[in-house]
Amino acid sequence: MKAIRRFTVRPVLPEALHPLSDLARNLRWSWHAETRDLFQSVDPERWTASGCDPVRLLGSVSSGRLAQLSGDRRFLRRLSAAADDLNDYVTGDRWYQSQPAELPAAIAYFSPEFGITAALPQYSGGLGILAGDHLKAASDLGVPLIGVGLLYRHGYFRQSLSRDGWQQEHYPVLDPNELPVSLLREPDGTPSQVSLALPGGTALHARIWLAQVGRVPLLLLDSDVEENDLGERGVTDRLYGGGSEHRLLQEMLLGIGGVRAVRTYCRLTGHARPEVFHTNEGHAGFLGLERIHELSYEDLDFEAALEAVRAGTVFTTHTPVPAGIDRFDRELVARHFGPDAELPRIDVERILQLGMETYPGGEPNLFNMAVMGLRLGQRANGVSLLHGQVSREMFAGLWPGFDPAEVPITSVTNGVHAPTWVAPEVFRLGARQIGAQRTEDALTVGGSETWDAVADIPDQDIWELRRSLREQLVTEVRERLYASWRQRGAGTAELGWIDGVLDPDVLTIGFARRVPSYKRLTLMLRDRDRLMDLLLHSERPVQIVVAGKAHPADDGGKRLVQELVRFADDPRVRHRIVFLPDYGMAMAQKLYPGCDIWLNNPLRPLEACGTSGMKAALNGCLNLSVLDGWWDEWFRPDFGWAIPTADGTAVDDDRRDELEAGALYDLLEQRVAPRFYELGQAGLPDRWIEMVRQTLSHLGPKLLAGRMVREYVERLYTPAALAHRSMDHPAARELAVWKSRVRAAWPHVTVDHVETTAATATAELGSTLSLRVLVALGDLAPDDVEVQAVSGRVDSEDRITDGTTFPLKPAGGPDQEGRWHYEGPLSLDRTGPFGYTVRILPAHRLLASNAELGLVAVPAEELVEGAGVLMR
């Protein structure tokens, strides 16, 4: 019989065990080994059965066992020590508290998904795991961050396979009362709520659940409340589910409702109000509109409020492809804003202008969330050096007249939270070398260029560690494979072969990630005979563990999964290659440490960063990857191997896959496998061990989320906070009026004449020429602009390829025609084809970049021809 109502019955902990509840409710346990060990000792069997979730564990422990523990003095001492340690962690000074005083009082960090722990399944893949690692690293560093997301009642989805290998999705209902979260409540005990106005006079209500991530509060909005109609209750049902309107409502709730949730949390707790708002991908972009709407009540018009909001906003883009960005029909967006819906004090046309693709190649009837994010954020970044470059090119239309290199999008390369992803055995090896506290500091705060102590670890210890981790993975794979085959309908009698799957002494390759087509899950199957030879080699075999989910609506991705599964089902190779369904954090934490090689073969440059290889590397796994994302930035032959890219314009997709698959097989056959199996004088693969050592000592410190968050603080959060403080109401009005005046006057800003002292088209290296320029500024004054010279090497079409800019100084004017004279020295500091040009840019003390307005004036074509090119 089915229950008509469900309750969560919580245990009554004896008074002596009350600290267990606080430890369970703070998600620091998910990356703090001592706290996890404490919970495991409560009841080892139930700990495993609970999925290593303290909240579920405490809900299932018998009262007899609790009474026994409350009288166990040794356990109580451990409990007291763990509670004291957590208190010191959340209240004591950390890295941030030792930094200069101008740092932000608080930062609000918005993301559509957060991967904190498998016990809180609110993530689908890399974006969410990155967001979770960002929060954990901020906590370790003491950064006053507030996380904001949605609480999805079905999470993403659970994946299983049919008998013929087709992906099947399951959506178990998550009861927040059984998750490590608690309701945010008003002083009278009622749950706090935020509401959004909807078209037709209805409303969308949401409660605020609080997950405590170490020192960092994470606010999760939940629309499944009684005050909502059935349709509104389902707004937060699934991550990345539903149609356009469903997604729009999710993103309105995340952005607009999220700001309201932050205001509520700060009011109730006294937490500092955020000076900086960080939008992790475009899904949360509406937060800027809500903040503009707030300022409309403070007597700021739209343009001034926009400047005030932009100053303190950071936008991070994670996608290198336009198809990865949420875009909505103009009419759909318009219907949800304005007098009859949300943000009634803002004119709908102003809102639409922020997101419309009003640039060459854009679709003018589509509202683009990333475009809005860039227009609402004064500072923006990609997530690796290469991705920053790709993003500048992809969004260059927003800054017409500027070379992509000058588009104001920088990059902060992602990192991963080492305490979450480093196996306990790896941590213990480091602790034996330099002590537990120094090891913990090295993995969290970071800051050193190299981990020199790794050089002193004996080869034997490294090799034994790697084999032990591989052996654990073999055990894990067999258990998961058995469960998967039982789900697929196999009987026990036909599964005896699973006991022989994988070998702890065989070179092990891992490949696990989402399954969009560009990640090329099945590239390894391109030449199946050659792959079989690799798997079954008599002296140097390899074995491969594969995992990944295709989006529920992506049948192409599901076909790739099925193709891989069917190959792995072949009795000839099924002991050497496996596909594990339901890839998630719990599986990943076993998979990364147990692999010797982490394989990544996306279509370059479509991998924005790709952090799975970072997690593997921190455990001594070597990377074998296309030069994309972070690997393009930090690859060295000491750390692994680069798969050559066949990206010539004459190569079609099919030929490219063929060439790159061939290169992958060559590397495995000729370089990777021989090095793994080649033994030195001591009977160990010393050349392989040295690569592991180099990976840990030289690559490891770069990969940390602590390094990443420190970069955000120093390069983006602090400048944004300073800009926010400078942009008080008078300054915001001043800047808005100035921008309006500059835009109106710009059509009349021209470079009218350029001349140098050069008499010929050649000159000597090191010489200096005098550059004189005549410009018309229309209704603007010299204080409104900067006149620049740009010089450097030129290509065959006279384009400056490595330009250096320097300002020219006013030398007189205006003349009778209203023109101004500028001049300055032009240094000829390099040999070969060399050229220069002149341009005029808007200039104001409150701009973060001269490119901010997307306005530039350059010489007309006939003027360029007259000025000539130097040093041909």
UniProtKB/TrEMBL annotation:
Domain of life: Bacteria
EC number: 2.4.1.1
Any Pfam family: DUF3417
Ranges for domain DUF3417: 13-120
Catalyzed chemical reaction(s): [(1->4)-alpha-D-glucosyl](n) + phosphate = [(1->4)-alpha-D-glucosyl](n-1) + alpha-D-glucose 1-phosphate
Named cofactor requirement(s): pyridoxal 5'-phosphate
Keywords annotated in UniProt: Allosteric enzyme, Carbohydrate metabolism, Glycosyltransferase, Pyridoxal phosphate, Transferase
Keyword Glycosyltransferase among record annotations: yes
Top-level class of the enzyme under EC nomenclature: transferase
SUPFAM superfamilies, sorted: UDP-Glycosyltransferase/glycogen phosphorylase
Function: Phosphorylase is an important allosteric enzyme in carbohydrate metabolism. Enzymes from different sources differ in their regulatory mechanisms and in their natural substrates. However, all known phosphorylases share catalytic and structural properties.
NCBIfam families: more_P_ylases
Family listed: Belongs to the glycogen phosphorylase family.
Name recorded for this polypeptide: glycogen phosphorylase
The organism's taxonomic lineage, starting at the top: Bacteria, Bacillati, Actinomycetota, Actinomycetes, Kitasatosporales
